[in-house]
Amino acid sequence: MLENRCEAWMVGIWLLAIAALPAMGSAPNDGQLAEAEAVVTEPEAAGLTDAERAATAPEEPEVIDPVAAGLVTREELQRYDDLDSKRIQDFTNVDLADYVELRNRGADTRNPRGSAAEEIGCYAIKSLKQPYRAAAGRFDLAESDCVTFQERCIALGLATDWRSYHLLCNRLRHKDGVLKYANRNVYPLADWIPNNAWLFEDITDKLGVPASTFDLGLQRKKRLVAQIAAGRIAPADLDVDVASMPETELVPQTYVARKHVAKVCEALRTGDLVFVIRRKQAKGTAPWYFCDHVGVIFRSREDTVTIVHAVHPNVHQEPLIELMTRCPWVGGFKFVRLRDDAAVIADAELRRIHLSLPTVQPSEQDVSTAALRSARGIPLRQAAP
To answer: Model pTM?
Structure first.
């Protein structure tokens, strides 16, 4: 469990968010906790002097002054504290760049940076109530769709500064980090997961329950023909002959069916990625399955497995079981997890691609974002629909 690292870091955010969330289970009240503690501690404490009790008591973690430790200046610490009190959607990209850098330099010594998976979960929580918009701008922090939200959290969880964040966002969206439309990861199951296997492991069949299977039917040829006709893709950019492609491509998939989801929750961790498998069936036909929604797993304060996801009207958090219950069309879920040495892997990949992928300064990205929002008739700080 995350041991409340993110909740402590985001206590101000939690107070606002919890009121909007469905109940996730009740914690014991103070009397129950005191009674439980007495059962354990009273026999052990019997006969001990005050000095002996003090000697055996667990030490409180030392809180380091980051200024005195030379990690940041007093002005930088104030800047970090100001940003830490805000949600991601209230950031500019300049703000985000400062926040990521200062956090990685150790500005927050009370709740310091955790593992990459923990950081993914923390940034997911810090994005609660971020407005949803279909086809959201990837670097427009005032909005997100489910894929943009997921990729943004991953990139922030692994980034050490603005440049690494920007590069990771592009690497996650494009096969091999090649910024061409033809290399875009369009299909979550058939493109995104296999093309990001360098960083993530599919754990669907490793959760202690039998994995269900289906063949994912894709009309990739039809989509590519349309994109070529629209001028978005040049045939020379493709590594396949479109004319020889099958009309329907079948890609074998595994998933955890509804009936097994409750059993696998214990094995899920904060920072795992969840892909929602939708089940559809027309009258007189066999059901078919596909994925059209994704999110991030976060274990709540009560150790409830929740999904944090971008869906209309905004990013919100709910128990995974509750999502499945209220959405009868959910056939199950697919899960992937960061590889154990994800930070090392990401660093090596960034060194490989840093010369081939362009990056812009955060201030330039803010100008570009403002221009895009202005073209849509939405001021930069107005909530997206």
So the answer is: 0.82
**Would the CA dihedral through 240, 217, 182, 151 be positive or negative?**
negative
- Report helix, strand or coil for 269: coil
Residues 6+ apart with CB under 8 A from 192: 147, 172, 185
Domain enclosing residue 94, as ranges: 63-190+342-375
We report the CATH number of the domain holding residue 367 as: 1.10.3670.10
pLDDT per residue as tens digits for the range 265-298: 999 999 999 999 999 999 999 999 999 999 999 9
At 297, the amino acid letter reads: I
Q: Which tokens belong to 199?
A: 């960083």
Written as one letter, the residue type at 126 is: K
Which of 326, 228, 201, 340 has its CA nearest to residue 276?
A: 326
Residue 114 inside a domain? The answer is yes
Q: Tens digit of pLDDT for each residue in 109-135?
A: 888 899 999 999 999 999 999 999 999
Give me the number of domains the chain comprises: 1
In a domain, 365, yes or no: yes
Residue matched to tokens 């943004």: 152
Tell me, yes or no, whether 147 lies in a domain: yes
| Residue 151 belongs to a domain | yes
